[in-house]
Amino acid sequence: AQRVTQPEKLLSVFKGAPVELKCNYSYSGSPELFWYVQYSRQRLQLLLRHISRESIKGFTADLNKGETSFHLKKPFAQEEDSAMYYCALGLWGGGYNKLIFGAGTRLAVHP
Amino acid sequence: DAGVTQSPTHLIKTRGQQVTLRCSPKSGHDTVSWYQQALGQGPQFIFQYYEEEERQRGNFPDRFSGHQFPNYSSELNVNALLLGDSALYLCASSSPGEQYFGPGTRLTVT
């Protein structure tokens, strides 16, 4: 079965500290992984996708197929990074596409 | 482009009633998906519409149904509401390999 697991409900750090939000997935095929972010009172928006291999707002994520993980990292957290972060597995096929989300991790960055 | 829009923003219904939620996709998008996000959970896929037909469905009962119109806008209908249907309902429209989300409709069932 396809599943996404985010083991931490809350991650609390101080400004300037490194951040790692964990994500593990279960999928027998070739995965396509995403990180979505939801800032307070804003809609869910795409942060980054593994196939782009880009850094957005200082965040990076590397797909590790051996460990079935897609952890989100940032070397120096900023207060404006405080938000809900969702890891998602994209399933495309047969002309359809859907996302399977983890339960989310709330990142709180303190001054 | 306002992006994906949804109406209404909030809705309160009583158990047993029926509800209709609406979604307009981002300009240029022809595919609409609906997700349910219960409190403290990630969004769960309900179904997807393309060319006015349901193309894929998640693990939701038949009480959840939908429709897509020729202009690509979509409706989500839920019959015989249960307390457990209280959630944020998200609409997403797609470009290849990416989904753009609306702000959601908060449904409260009392």
Describe the structure.
- The complex is a heterodimer of chains A (111) and B (110).
- With 111 residues, chain A is an all-beta fold.
- Chain A contains no helices and eleven strands.
- Chain B is mainly β.
- Chain B has no helices and eleven strands.
- In chain B, the strands form two sheets. In chain B, strands 2, 4, 5, 6, 9, 10 and 11 form a seven-stranded mixed β-sheet that branches.
- In chain B, a hairpin with a 6-residue loop joins strand 4 and strand 5.
- Chain B is globular.
- The N and C termini of chain B lie far apart (36 Å).
- At the A-B interface, strand 6, strand 9 and strand 10 of A face strand 4, strand 5, strand 9 and strand 10 of B.
Keyphrases for this structure?
heterodimer, A: Immunoglobulin-like, 6-stranded mixed sheet, 3-stranded antiparallel sheet, 0% helix, B: 110 residues, mainly beta, 4-stranded antiparallel sheet
DSSP, total strands of chain A: 11
The CATH fourth-level homologous superfamily of chain A: Immunoglobulins
The greatest inter-chain interface is formed by: A-B, 26 and 26 residues
CATH fold assignment of chain A:
Immunoglobulin-like
Ends apart, CA distance between termini of chain A: 41 Å
* The CATH C-level class name of chain B: Mainly Beta
Number of structural domains of chain A: 1
CATH architecture of chain B: Sandwich
Total count of helical runs of at least 4 residues of chain B: 0
Percent helix of chain A: under 10%
Structural class of chain B: mainly beta
The helix fraction of chain B, in percent, is under 10%
The fraction of residues assigned to DSSP E strands of chain B is over 45%
In short:
Chain A is an all-beta fold and 111 residues long.
Strands, helices and their partners?
The complex is a heterodimer of chains A (111) and B (110).
Chain A: E1 3-5, E2 10-14, E3 19-21, E4 24-26, E5 32-38, E6 45-49, E7 60-61, E8 72-74, E9 83-93, E10 96-101, E11 105-110
Parallel strand pairs in A: 2-11
Antiparallel strand pairs in A: 1-4, 3-8, 5-6, 5-9, 7-8, 9-10, 9-11
Chain B: E1 5-7, E2 10-13, E3 19-24, E4 31-37, E5 44-50, E6 53-57, E7 64-68, E8 74-78, E9 87-95, E10 98-101, E11 105-109
Parallel strand pairs in B: 2-11
Antiparallel strand pairs in B: 1-3, 3-8, 4-5, 4-9, 5-6, 7-8, 9-10, 9-11
